[in-house]
Write a structure and sequence with these properties.
This protein is an alpha/beta fold. Among the domains are: 79 residues, no CATH class; 143 residues, no CATH class. It has 18 helices and seven strands. The protein has a seven-stranded parallel beta sheet with strand order 6-5-4-3-2-1-7. Helix 8 crosses helix 11. It starts with 33 loop residues before the first helix and ends in a 9-residue tail after the last helix. Belongs to the proline oxidase family.
Length: 451
């Protein structure tokens, strides 16, 4: 995926010289047990029911009071938790990953911890320090899941910046750096130097407490990146809300300055770009050019975006210009522009540029893969363009999976469902394919599932 120049021998299916045409007819479902298919269909239909998604947290609390913690927890484990979560213990996560590997998939672990903008204030640095420990454990777990020598450096994990720094600080930084003529005292290079040296920053737009929190946050981020680099785990930093993303991008840029140089074997820190924002294609172009000028490796996870409903409500209330694309079609065009740009960069700049196509959309996947099938990419390029939901043609595929206890994961899953409600409501094709496979088995045509 990253620097190797040969086809991945660890993946099932065709070799690099014999790629199969893509097929989205649901044939992979025959690898799943009947109970797993039934659960998947049930959960998809539940997630497509707007009242359940909208009031998910309240319904969870009501079920816990009515049924008790044990029974309500058992129902969640048998349904939503079992469908989306790798498990709670290391052994459970490893068991889940073994099942993914049987399908030719690799894990992309996510710690379900973040600070919501409208949540109650956290109590001091202790909460963020606890999250740091959880992130370091996730690095260890991610490293231990793929230990074969040929997969060194191909272990990935997701990172939420708001687990390690407050959204309030991110808002302050964003309001400052988006002003015309913003001060260079908040340059990525200066923040990277503070990360490395540990010397306290004194940023004029922040008060004493905020400066102390910024320094502590930089230290936490650097410790995760440093440990991940030592353990050969790449960090994919999640995008979040528009009104804090400029600050998050600044912090990621500082990490990139420190950890994405060619001598480090980078990119070890990747940023996420959301195609549903109008300025994303131009911002992606600028960031890629800035990385090239600085001699840094450039890692990108390209997504459509998950915060559309909340973003629009915020900007309507504020009476400010909506930064989001007007409709799904416009978002798709934006995604295609970003994808075309990154595919050119991946093809031309080799190990200095890497892309993850994080998409459920068939057309986006086809756009990327047809370039390979047409011979437009150099040998081995497919290893630098992993896909989150594509395995049939032998490409490198990662599946994003949270892990942890019910108390932590269920609120996280409900928030993800609320952010992705339009996608979940539109998953009719997947529901239809699941139903088709279940009916085929019930009518006596069941294939034997692998052990």
């Amino acid at each position: 995926m990253f620097r190797t120049r040969r086809a991945l021998s660890s993946l099932p299916g065709p070799s690099s010289g014999d790629w199969r045409p893509l097929n989205f007819d649901g044939g992979a479902f025959h690898l799943k047990g009947t109970a797993e298919l039934a659960r998947a269909l049930l959960v998809l239909r539940l997630c497509a029911w707007p009242p359940l998604v909208t009031h998910g947290l309240a319904l969870q609390a009501w079920a816990q009071r009515l049924l008790g913690s044990r029974l309500s927890g058992a129902l969640l484990r048998a349904s939503v938790y079992g469908q989306f979560v790798a498990g709670e213990t290391g052994e459970e996560v490893r068991g889940c990953v073994r099942q993914l590997q049987a399908l030719g998939l690799r894990p992309l672990l996510a710690v379900p911890t973040e600070e919501e903008p409208d949540s109650a204030a956290k109590t001091g640095e202790a909460w963020y320090e606890g999250n740091l420990s959880a992130m370091l454990r996730c690095v260890d777990l991610s490293r231990g899941l793929l230990e074969t020598p040929d997969l060194a450096g191909k272990n990935l994990m997701q990172l939420k910046v708001t687990a390690l720094t407050s959204t309030r600080l991110c808002k302050e930084l964003t309001s400052w750096i988006t002003r015309p003529g913003a001060s260079l005292e908040l340059s990525p290079e200066r923040l990277a130097e503070a990360m490395d040296s540990g010397q306290n920053l004194q940023v004029s737009c922040l008060n004493t407490e905020q400066n102390q929190h910024l320094q502590a946050s930089l230290s936490r981020l650097n410790r995760v990146a440093q440990y991940a680099r030592a353990q050969q785990v790449r960090l994919l930093v999640d995008a979040e809300y528009t009104f804090i993303n400029p600050a998050l991008s600044l912090l990621v840029a500082a990490l990139a300055v420190r950890w994405n140089s060619p001598r480090e074997g980078g990119p070890w820190v990747w940023n996420t770009y959301q195609a549903y924002l109008k300025d994303t294609p131009e911002r992606l172009r600028r960031d890629a050019e800035a990385a090239r000028r600085a001699g840094l490796a450039f890692g990108v996870k390209l997504v459509r975006g998950a915060y559309l409903d909340k973003e629009r409500k915020v900007f309507q209330l504020q009476g400010t210009e909506d930064p989001t694309q007007p409709d799904y079609e416009a978002t798709s065009r934006s995604y295609s522009r970003c994808l075309e740009l990154m595919l050119r960069l991946v093809s031309h700049h080799g190990p200095m540029c890497h892309l993850m196509v994080a998409s459920h959309n068939e057309e986006s996947v086809r756009l990327a893969t047809k370039r390979y099938e047409a011979g437009e990419w150099e040998t081995g390029t497919h290893e630098k363009v992993p896909f989150l939901l594509l395995w049939q043609a032998g490409y490198v595929v990662y599946k994003s999976i949270p892990y942890g206890c019910l108390k932590e994961v269920i609120p996280y899953l409900i928030r993800r469902a609320q952010e992705n409600r339009s996608v979940l409501q539109g998953a009719r094709r997947e529901q239809a394919l699941l139903s088709q496979e279940l009916w085929r088995r019930l009518l006596g045509g069941r294939r034997r599932a692998p052990h």
